[in-house]
Amino acid sequence: MKKNNAFQKFLKSMRFRLILLCLIVGILPCLVLRAGFLKAYEDQAASTRSIAIISQAKILADQIAANDYINKQNTESITVQLNQLSNIYDGRVMLIDSAFRIVADTYGLDETKTIISEEVVQSLSGKEISKYDKESRYLEMTLPIKAANSTEVIGVMLVSVSMDSVLHDRDAVGRNAAILTLIIGVLILAFAIFASGRLVRPLRRMEKSIRDIQTGYEEDGLNVNTYTETKEMSESFNQLFGRMKTIDDSRQEFVSNVSHELKTPLTSMKVLADSINAMEDAPVELYKEFMEDITNEIERENKIITDLLSLVKMDKSAADLNISSININEMLELILKRLRSIAEKQNIELVLETFRPVTAEIDEVKLTLAITNLVENAIKYNRENGWVHVTLNADYQYFYVKVEDSGIGIPEDSLEHIYERFYRVDKSHSREIGGTGLGLAITRNAVLMHRGAIKAYSTEGEGTIFTVRIPLNYIA
């Protein structure tokens, strides 16, 4: 079974295909050339023999006409020459008069008989005909015999010779050619096995390196630069491996952050509960205070879990989007209406400015969550008596939402990290206001699912601007 699997694996390998290609490219032309050469050899031999026989037959035909041999058959020398021609070429010579009667036959079989054939008829009209019958392996020629000093045709000479000797020589040449082709095939096979092994060696090195990388023995990446293709494959693999490593590191960091974020409220609750249990006669007011702290920690835990669930939903494919035509102006007014109470607690001025009516194809729930996160962050990370301006504009292709605040701003070195999960610019302030570090990650995912883009601009201590661009028509 293992041998059978190994053989099937070899048949599907690139090396086998290279060997097969070399054999086809190397041997097929040899076979074609051999067949063409043998055919050309046979045709050339038949043509050469036909010319030689016709030239001798013409001389003999002139003598036959001069001695009126067809009517008298009294010239012994002509009879001898006819027999010689027949013996030399291993063939048969017949003389036919104008009445289609055979007057002479070197085989002595059909004399006095009548013969009517297309070739004889044409030759009696003055045509010279030569025909090679490959099936019967005979070369047949008919030529007219004209009267002396006249154009009158008085008879026909029909010469039929065997091609066996020529074909025997052709077969001998063919056998030699076959042996030569076999030798060439063996040499090509040996070369193909050697060359294919050298050609696929870089691919095997790549396979081994990938296996070593998978098992952790190789940390330098894939570096097989033998060919341009293997170099490009190595570079592409290293890029992919680097990205996968980054994703894996991000996943591990994410799991670690989730564990930490979920464990912190639980630890706080356990400390509070242990403190209460350690007090034998704690006053009711202290119990209430501790229970209120525990309630706050539970709410914080619940908010983290809710944001995590939202983020998981956002990570699903865009096929889960519930796209419909939505009035963006009304959607923003509703968002600001819900958040106005939070803004009033901090005495934050919340303003919506729209330049034109906008209707777009969006998932209202997901995009509402994204814009809500941006506006809520702008309120929470603001100064007292500050402001948050939300503007809406559109062109023929996109609509634009800008959320601008007068808040604490974001340091320049933190701007590139703000969309990372659980990343906080000011951790102490974030914990005070109940931030989970997931809001902007959720927002970015929602925007990208709509084939949109989000950008942040900020000056520390002065404020932050988020711009969101979404296509008016959703493209799946």
Automatic annotation (TrEMBL):
> Boundaries of each Histidine kinase domain copy?
257-474
Q: Indicate yes or no for the key word Nucleus.
A: no
Spell out the InterPro entries in the cross-references. BphY/WalK/GraS-like, HATPase_C_sf, HATPase_dom, His_kinase_dom, HisK_dim/P_dom, HisK_dim/P_sf, Sig_transdc_His_kin-like_C
Q: Domain of life, per the record?
A: Bacteria
Whether Membrane counts among this entry's keywords is yes
Give the primary localization class: membrane
Concerning SUPFAM superfamilies, the annotation shows: ATPase domain of HSP90 chaperone/DNA topoisomerase II/histidine kinase, Homodimeric domain of signal transducing histidine kinase
Give the keywords, sorted: Kinase, Membrane, Phosphoprotein, Transferase, Transmembrane, Transmembrane helix, Two-component regulatory system
Q: Please name one Pfam family that this protein belongs to.
A: HATPase_c
Q: What is its EC number?
A: 2.7.13.3
Q: Where in the cell is it found?
A: Membrane
What catalytic reaction does the record list? ATP + protein L-histidine = ADP + protein N-phospho-L-histidine
Q: Where are the transmembrane segments?
A: 177-200
Q: What is this protein called?
A: histidine kinase
